């Protein structure tokens, strides 16, 4: 299986001061035109997946601080693209898992099976204060939320909607199920208010260690170098593993290292324990080839230094080279994200015996 290519497209880029090198007016940051434009670049280039960062607190960095909810942007991208998959980041801390389930299922319906979910946590004291709640255990909150969301996706069987005109029955109520989940601070009865997603279960991605591997489809791993990434990848038991890579590429007008140094004068690019590459597009292609050869990694999520600059280089030089060398492949029209990843469509836990997945 070739590497699956994903790219993070929130805001101006991975660097907190990336807005200083943006190629568009500040007023365009949150415009639908820009959201669609970035997604279209990624789709035309051959990326399989875009992710959209989000949190309960506003983005930092000293400038350009603002964002629209990731789920709303994901729904817009899903309706604006045809083969590109989209996975919004949704924090599980303090959020209501029933609403998360409904929102994400709706995105998968809009995308016709091209949606995922990047699970996140918000352990900052400022988040607890903003919500007026005591500080939560982010790991336990994440585990409960993922379990509730997954159960709610199954609370409608695939054939629950019957649309029987003769009997005026829209639903077969015997194929809707209570989940009766009891967490430490809440209970969820169910069923969901949105039919089961086209994929049955959206593809769930999470940083390795946030929730147990059994609850996740794709573990996101990092490391200071390729050896560390490989060790982290082979330590996972999830069906798929993606490496997190921050990239600062050489462009036609400036070296990647020079751009990083310029932006670091305004704010430090601390990173999040991810592998970081700075240099030529050809060097990144070689690094990804080396990563693929080591095994244990099924895909990568690239985090561009400055979206307006690095995404163009990725699209023009890196992705085409990977596809040409058969290290990656374009997504196929009419195929779900699960199918692209080689993941089966999950059987519904509540389905009557003998009902096929």
Task: Note down, in words, how this protein is organized.
The chain is of the alpha/beta class. The protein has a single domain, classed as Luciferase-like domain (TIM Barrel). Helix content is 33%, strand content 17%. It has an eight-stranded parallel barrel, surrounded by seven helices. A two-stranded antiparallel ribbon has the order 5-6. Helix 1 packs across helix 2, helix 2 runs parallel beside helix 3 and helix 3 packs across helix 5. The longest helix is centred in the C-terminal third of the chain and has 18 residues. The radius of gyration is 21 Å and the shape is globular. The mean pLDDT is 93.
Summarize the structure.
With 357 residues, this protein is α/β, with parallel strands linked by helices. The chain is built from ten helices and 13 strands.
Q: Terminal Cα separation, in Å?
A: 24 Å
Provide the CATH superfamily: Luciferase-like domain
Shape: globular
CATH fold description: TIM Barrel
CATH architecture: Alpha-Beta Barrel
Largest sheet: 8 strands, parallel, barrel
List the helices and strands and how they pair.
Elements: E1 4-8, H1 32-45, E2 49-52, H2 70-80, E3 85-91, H3 97-111, E4 116-120, H4 125-131, H5 138-154, E5 161-164, E6 169-171, E7 181-182, E8 187-188, E9 203-207, E10 218-221, H6 226-234, E11 240-249, H7 256-264, E12 275-279, H8 281-294, E13 299-304, H9 307-324, H10 337-341
Helix pairs in contact: 1-2, 1-9, 2-3, 3-5, 8-9
What attributes does this structure have?
about 350 residues; alpha/beta; TIM Barrel; eight-stranded parallel barrel; two-stranded antiparallel sheet; 10 helices; about 35% helix; globular
